[in-house]
Amino acid sequence: MKNDRRQILIAGVGGQGVLFATKVVLETARRIGSPVIGSETHGMSQRGGSVVSVVKIGGFSNPLSSPGGADLLLALQRDESYRNLSFVRRGGACVANSPDPGFLDAGVRAALEGLGVSLFPLDADKAAAEVGSPVSSNLVCLGFAVARKLLPFEPAGWKACISAISSGKLAPSSIAAFEKGMELGEK
Fold first, then answer.
1. Contact 114, 135 (CB under 8 A)
2. Is residue 1 part of a domain?
3. Residue 15, helix vs strand vs coil
4. 46: buried, middle or exposed (CB in 10 Å: 19+, 13-18, 0-12)?
5. Which of 23, 107, 147, 180 has the fewest CB atoms within 10 Å distance of its CB?
6. What is the extent of the structural domain holding 141?
7. Using one digit for the tens of pLDDT, what is the confidence trace for 28-67?
């Protein structure tokens, strides 16, 4: 899977771990030996504003994503999925952190179905709290995407990277959140 090309858009609000999730994706790809580039857009992140990053794995030369270009949207907050769905390509996927699996408007759902976009609503906040790490919903979403094969590379590579870049005593809870996401993704 070394040359598997993917464009991933990670969107959330300040404090949800968009930048940490981005770092995990970038570093995992780098450690595996895949070419990887990324970019970040910080809004009013300190005030709960939008934060968006793009990671491109494979032989890309431009770190930005155009509408209809992303293979995967990881929306760490429900409203950010609405704001960023236009970036998902035909046949792509969206993992959306939402306690309500039917949160999208019926017209939006129909449009996504028409484009072949797979939507995976996931209560990542609840799952992260269940493993004792309520701030790790970003890692739940990543684990879910890995289990669903929406992200390349084997779980062991992801876990090694998460463990390496998590602050010492936080590594076990970060791995637990990632594994909880994988468990939910395998259902």
1. no
2. no
3. coil
4. exposed
5. 107
6. 6-185
7. 999 999 999 998 876 655 566 889 999 999 988 888 888 9
